[in-house]
Protein backbone atom coordinates (compact mmCIF):
# COMPACT_ATOMS: atom_id res chain seq x y z
CA UNK A 1 0.00 0.00 0.00
CA UNK A 2 1.45 3.36 -0.99
CA UNK A 3 -1.42 5.61 0.08
CA UNK A 4 -1.53 7.06 3.56
CA UNK A 5 -5.30 7.56 3.34
CA UNK A 6 -7.86 4.80 3.79
CA UNK A 7 -11.56 5.20 3.04
CA UNK A 8 -13.95 2.62 4.48
CA UNK A 9 -17.18 2.11 2.54
CA UNK A 10 -19.88 0.19 4.43
CA UNK A 11 -22.62 -1.19 2.18
CA UNK A 12 -25.35 -3.77 1.98
CA UNK A 13 -24.81 -3.87 -1.77
CA UNK A 14 -28.45 -3.10 -2.55
CA UNK A 15 -27.77 0.06 -4.58
CA UNK A 16 -25.04 -0.90 -7.05
CA UNK A 17 -25.41 2.22 -9.19
CA UNK A 18 -24.90 4.51 -6.18
CA UNK A 19 -22.09 2.33 -4.84
CA UNK A 20 -20.17 2.53 -8.11
CA UNK A 21 -20.58 6.33 -8.21
CA UNK A 22 -19.34 6.59 -4.62
CA UNK A 23 -16.27 4.47 -5.38
CA UNK A 24 -15.54 6.47 -8.55
CA UNK A 25 -15.72 9.70 -6.55
CA UNK A 26 -13.13 8.37 -4.09
CA UNK A 27 -10.77 7.45 -6.93
CA UNK A 28 -11.31 10.86 -8.59
CA UNK A 29 -10.59 12.71 -5.33
CA UNK A 30 -7.04 11.40 -5.08
CA UNK A 31 -4.91 8.52 -3.90
CA UNK A 32 -6.64 6.40 -1.26
CA UNK A 33 -6.86 2.78 -0.22
CA UNK A 34 -10.54 1.82 -0.50
CA UNK A 35 -11.82 -0.85 1.89
CA UNK A 36 -15.41 -2.08 1.66
CA UNK A 37 -17.34 -3.79 4.44
CA UNK A 38 -20.28 -5.72 3.00
CA UNK A 39 -22.30 -8.91 3.52
CA UNK A 40 -20.48 -12.13 2.66
CA UNK A 41 -22.86 -12.73 -0.26
CA UNK A 42 -21.83 -9.49 -1.98
CA UNK A 43 -19.38 -10.22 -4.81
CA UNK A 44 -16.82 -7.40 -4.90
CA UNK A 45 -14.52 -9.04 -7.47
CA UNK A 46 -15.82 -6.94 -10.40
CA UNK A 47 -15.21 -3.72 -8.44
CA UNK A 48 -11.70 -4.84 -7.50
CA UNK A 49 -10.97 -5.84 -11.12
CA UNK A 50 -12.22 -2.43 -12.30
CA UNK A 51 -9.79 -0.71 -9.94
CA UNK A 52 -12.54 0.90 -7.88
CA UNK A 53 -11.89 -1.09 -4.73
CA UNK A 54 -8.76 -2.41 -3.04
CA UNK A 55 -10.26 -4.92 -0.60
CA UNK A 56 -13.52 -6.21 0.85
CA UNK A 57 -14.27 -7.45 4.35
CA UNK A 58 -17.27 -9.65 5.10
CA UNK A 59 -19.32 -7.76 7.66
CA UNK A 60 -19.66 -9.35 11.06
CA UNK A 61 -21.87 -6.79 12.81
CA UNK A 62 -25.49 -5.87 12.53
CA UNK A 63 -25.35 -2.11 12.12
CA UNK A 64 -23.78 0.69 10.13
CA UNK A 65 -21.64 1.67 13.11
CA UNK A 66 -20.40 -1.91 13.51
CA UNK A 67 -19.43 -2.07 9.82
CA UNK A 68 -17.54 1.23 10.04
CA UNK A 69 -15.73 0.13 13.19
CA UNK A 70 -14.86 -3.22 11.59
CA UNK A 71 -13.33 -1.39 8.64
CA UNK A 72 -11.44 1.04 10.86
CA UNK A 73 -9.99 -1.89 12.81
CA UNK A 74 -8.65 -3.44 9.58
CA UNK A 75 -6.91 -0.50 7.94
CA UNK A 76 -3.50 -1.26 6.41
CA UNK A 77 -0.28 -0.35 8.17
CA UNK A 78 0.89 3.09 7.14
CA UNK A 79 -2.56 4.66 7.19
CA UNK A 80 -2.31 8.21 8.51
CA UNK A 81 -5.72 9.53 7.47
CA UNK A 82 -8.94 7.61 7.88
CA UNK A 83 -12.45 8.34 6.63
CA UNK A 84 -15.65 6.56 5.77
CA UNK A 85 -18.10 7.24 2.98
CA UNK A 86 -21.63 5.94 2.64
CA UNK A 87 -22.45 3.97 -0.48
CA UNK A 88 -24.81 6.74 -1.58
CA UNK A 89 -22.44 9.66 -0.95
CA UNK A 90 -19.92 11.36 -3.23
CA UNK A 91 -16.59 13.05 -2.57
CA UNK A 92 -15.68 16.24 -4.35
CA UNK A 93 -12.66 15.94 -6.64
CA UNK A 94 -9.37 17.24 -5.29
Task: Please give a structural write-up.
There is one protein chain. The protein is of the alpha/beta class and 94 residues long. The protein has one domain (5-84). 31% of the residues lie in helices and 21% in strands. The protein has three helices and four strands; from the N terminus they run E-H-E-H-E-H-E. The chain has helices at 16-29, 45-49, 64-73; strands at 5-10, 33-38, 55-58, 81-84. Strands 3-2-1-4 form a four-stranded parallel beta sheet, with helices on one face. It is globular. The model has no long low-confidence stretch (mean pLDDT 95).
SSE diagram, text form:
Blueprint: E1 5-10, H1 16-29, E2 33-38, H2 45-49, E3 55-58, H3 64-73, E4 81-84
Parallel strand pairs: 1-2, 1-4, 2-3
Give the overall form.
Answer: globular
Overall average residue pLDDT: 95
Largest sheet: 4 strands, parallel
Q: Please tell me the total number of domains.
A: 1
Beta content comes to 15-25%
Distance between the termini: 20 Å
What descriptors fit this protein?
single chain, about 90 residues, alpha/beta, 3 helices, 4 strands, about 30% helix, about 20% strand, globular
In short:
By secondary structure, the chain is an alpha/beta fold. It has helices at 16-29, 45-49, 64-73, and strands at 5-10, 33-38, 55-58, 81-84. It has one domain (5-84).
Amino acid sequence: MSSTTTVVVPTLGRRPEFLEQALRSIRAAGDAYVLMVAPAAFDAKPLIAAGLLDAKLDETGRSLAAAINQGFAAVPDGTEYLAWLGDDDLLRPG
